[in-house]
Amino acid sequence: EAKQSGRNKWVYYRQDMSEKLTERRKMAAELKTAIQEGQLSLVYQPRFNLRTSNVEAVEALVRWQHPERGSMMPDQFIPLAEETGQIIHLSNWVIRKACSDTLDKLPGLSVSVNVSPVEFQASDLADRIKNILEDTGLEPTRLEIEVTENVTLSDPERTCQTMKTLKQMGVRILIDDFGTGYASLSYLRKFQFDGLKLDKSFIFSLGDSQQNQSVVEKIIDLGKAYSMEVTAEGVETADQLSFLKKNKCDEVQGYFLGKPVAITDLNLS
Ligand code: C2E
Ligand code: MG
Ligand code: MG
Ligand code: MG
């Protein structure tokens, strides 16, 4: 009997697997048309300078208005886009849209866009960005690229070269979700990022223990030791904000200060 139910489980498992595969193939095909059909949009979240309280930049975050599934969050389709290579198209659209929005509607502000580590492996990332900047007319110094620290893992030489080219153009590069990936300290020195965004899980943990607070303090110091501007992500409470202020974190971003919204709903004061 046990054997029988074990076998059934295996059958169910296989059915489940193939359903998932079919589902994924369908979604991959749909993602292809999503860009052409205008189903993608951007929301923007402000990032504040803690010393001046000014908005320093806005982060562009992609959304997909799927005809049947409704509003989809990036975690539901970015991994698929990375696997199928469509991330390049998606990303071209995101960067172009973010640059032209910023030029048209956000005078004096910078914009940051998220780029997948896999895009750094395709050697033409710097060229793509250069073309978009030229086409849209946004000054390169107003564009920032966010990439997770896992970008340092494969082909570090090539990645380093791409970063150098971007930095020479004036584009700033920030490490996103810092503390959750695999970068070694020696890579922080080698890659010379302009800024570090401390992952929100560290900010959420601040209230739990003295030890967690101490870790955040040390990461802020570490970032500064490498001449990086330190941003705290996921600031949701006044207590978190005052802790970060007290410990000289440079910049903050989070629901407490401003949620991601359509560009016309941004409150920049
Ligand atoms: P991320 O770059 O770390 O972006 C921050 C995420 O945290 C966003 O989620 C944002 O809505 C959320 N967030 C901001 N403040 C708070 C807060 O106070 N509390 C909580 N709980 N969450 C907060 P979102 O928009 O769902 O994006 C998730 C991830 O998807 C992003 O993480 C980024 O890695 C990726 N992503 C988003 N847009 C793009 C894109 O255009 N291209 C690529 N390659 N990845 C993108
Ligand atoms: Mg980001
Ligand atoms: Mg991220
Ligand atoms: Mg992040």
TrEMBL record:
This is diguanylate cyclase. It comes from the Bacteria. The chain holds residues 584 to 852 of 852 of the full protein. Residues 24-269 form the EAL domain. Coiled coil: none annotated.
